């Protein structure tokens, strides 16, 4: 299981939870798992071409993930952030 | 007769609903809804009372659509918002940045909705707005790269900014874009052709091209859908179908005001009458009310002449403007007019533009105002 940090922008999908668990061997699989339980969440973060949206950022630990194929290990922490987007 | 109206107001920071009494004098406000969300369009379904759709995005999150079946009390999110098919070539991969325009389908097609997006693209829903499919006839048209070149576009992104359906024929459609001008389909969006004869594009080497214009807004006269009004980047135009050649009716505007603006409103009962809200398009394009003196201009003779209507607006130091979706009429007699400003003010006229009064201030920048009967 992967621990996932949910940013405030997405807690409307997770019943207010800012920390949830997900299954998946890659970032994409973990996001797909989240989307099954919290429908619509993935598309708000990842566009239809599988690109991370411009003002969203995903980290595994201290490392930023730029490729959804990035592999995950049990115990990893996946952090989703709403980055700076203007006023 | 006047009848109660509700105004669906979309702003850069959320949505509001204003509901009037029968005289359209007293207003009650509900909101904000979706506080902090960018509400590009907020539309009621004339075929099904109580159904509302919102096109939303946020500064961070991708675009989506929300649907209400109870007049805005509760909302569900689209299961499949407008999105392009996955591209084989990442270099040409398109992604919807936001949905700009929502259009209820023809009266004979309940459940059908159309959406225009940035980048310019057309999407269709057949389940009331819950799932959307890319319309190949436009989005994958062989001419798409020429009609919607990726380097072209307005500051907030290139747009497919209006969809209009002939009330007599669901297969007859018009769209307006900021990159290619106006296009027409007579086969329910399967194929399209440019409809821009005599429309200026003074930012291109050929100022009267077949396509390439920036059609800020188009409106069909409700009582005569063969009459199309266009507020273009370069001026105000009118086209009477089956004619193909637009007439620059904005040339009759006072020269010191000009005929640049974002939007045009067709009268609900007279095809001779329309309103525009001019903005300053001189020098560096301030895009504010000319001279700081906001005014609506009305024609009652099809564009041969225009009259200034500014009673109630600031007489000076009023620098707001009105964006594409933020000026509309209701279906009353006399027609009520409503406009939302970039300064977050909501104005109304109960006498077809002769006088104006402010009914709300201090809202975020207003993107869209839609008037619908309050049932």
Give an account of the 3D structure:
The complex is a heterodimer of chains A (87) and B (375). Chain A has 87 residues and is α+β, with helices and mostly antiparallel strands. Chain A is 18% helix and 25% strand. Chain A has a five-stranded mixed β-sheet with strand order 2-1-5-3-4, covered by helices on one side. In chain A, strand 3 (56-60) and strand 4 (63-65) form a beta hairpin. The longest helix of chain A has 11 residues, at 27-37. The mean pLDDT of chain A is 95. Chain B has 375 residues and is mainly beta. Chain B contains two helices and 27 strands. In chain B, 53% of the residues are buried. Classes of the chains: A alpha+beta (87), B mainly beta (375). At the A-B interface, helix 2 of A face loops of B.
Topology of this protein?
The complex is a heterodimer of chains A (87) and B (375).
Chain A (H helix, E strand, L loop, with lengths): L1 E4 L13 E4 L4 H11 L3 H5 L10 E5 L2 E3 L11 E6 L5
Parallel strand pairs in A: 1-5
Antiparallel strand pairs in A: 1-2, 3-4, 3-5
Chain B lengths: L4 E7 L2 E7 L6 E7 L4 E7 L7 E6 L6 E5 L7 E2 L20 E7 L8 E6 L2 E5 L7 E2 L1 H4 L4 H4 L12 E6 L7 E5 L3 E5 L7 E2 L20 E7 L2 E9 L3 E5 L20 E6 L7 E5 L17 E4 L7 E3 L17 E3 L7 E4 L5 E4 L7 E4 L5 E8 L2
Antiparallel strand pairs in B: 1-2, 1-27, 2-3, 4-5, 5-6, 6-7, 8-9, 9-10, 10-11, 12-13, 13-14, 14-15, 16-17, 17-18, 19-20, 20-21, 21-22, 23-24, 24-25, 25-26
What's the helix-strand series of chain B?
EEEEEEEEEEEHHEEEEEEEEEEEEEEEE
CATH class group of chain A: Alpha Beta
State the total count of DSSP E strands of chain B.
27
Gross CATH architecture of chain B = 7 Propeller
User: What strand line-up does the widest sheet of chain A have?
Assistant: 2-1-5-3-4
Write down the Rg of chain B: 19 Å
Instruction: Provide the low-confidence segments of chain A as ranges.
Output: none
Reported for the largest beta sheet of chain B, the result is: 4 strands, antiparallel
- Tally of helical runs of chain B: 2
Estimated share of beta-strand residues of chain A: 25-35%
Structural class of chain B: mainly beta
Cross-sheet strand order for the largest sheet of chain B = 3-2-1-27
Largest sheet of chain A: 5 strands, mixed
Mean pLDDT value of chain A: 95
CATH 4th-level superfamily of chain A:
Beta-grasp domain
In angstroms, what is the radius of gyration of chain A?
12 Å
Distance between the termini of chain A: 36 Å
